[in-house]
Amino acid sequence: MKKQISKACGAVSRLRYYLPINSLITVYYSLVYSHLQNAISSCGSASTYSLKTIKTIHNKIIRLITFSSYRSNTQKLYAQLKILNLNDIHQLQIAKLMHQFKHGCLPSVFNNLFTKLDNIHPYRLITDKKHLKNM
After folding, report:
1. Is the pLDDT of residue 118 over 90?
2. What pTM value is reported for the model?
3. Contacts of 110 (CB under 8 A, 6+ apart)
């Protein structure tokens, strides 16, 4: 994954002088986000140290798109471009996986991988809809 994102970083650094920002964002989604989205579910829970280089390259691409200096705060840039950072991409992918699991859209291999809270706790949880209506 690091190799593909590094190549995309080089492509963005060359294209940014010729394309407007909305086109650079499209290039970002096709070259970078697609790789992050596919690989983040498996390696997103890795140690912070091992993900540091990927986060650094990701931040560099965002700075290249906006022509910002290498010391610019990337949180504001992500918000400005309406792009998710690496942690948010990981949370989104996990949320999508849990949604698919809850609604039975995953292959049967995943059935025993997760346990629903209903199966662990015999007592009624505070999040039950009936209980919340009575409060």
Report:
1. no
2. 0.78
3. 101
CA–CA separation, 62 and 36 (whole Å): 14
CA 18 to chain centre: 28
Buried b / exposed e along 6-38 (16+ C-beta atoms within 10 A): eebbebbeeebeeeeeeebbebbeebbbebbbe
Residue 7's closest CA among 39, 38, 31, 24?
31
Identity at 99, one-letter amino acid code: H
Task: Specify whether the backbone of 32 is left (phi greater than 0), alpha (psi in -120 to 50) or beta.
Answer: alpha
Indicate the residue type of 107: P
Residue pointed to by tokens 């039975």: 104
Q: Give residue-wise pLDDT tens across range 14-27.
A: 999 999 999 999 99
What's the burial of 116, exposed, middle or buried (CB within 10 Å: 0-12/13-18/19+)?
exposed
> So where are the chain's domains?
2-134
From CA 15, how far away is CA 86, in angstroms rounded? 23
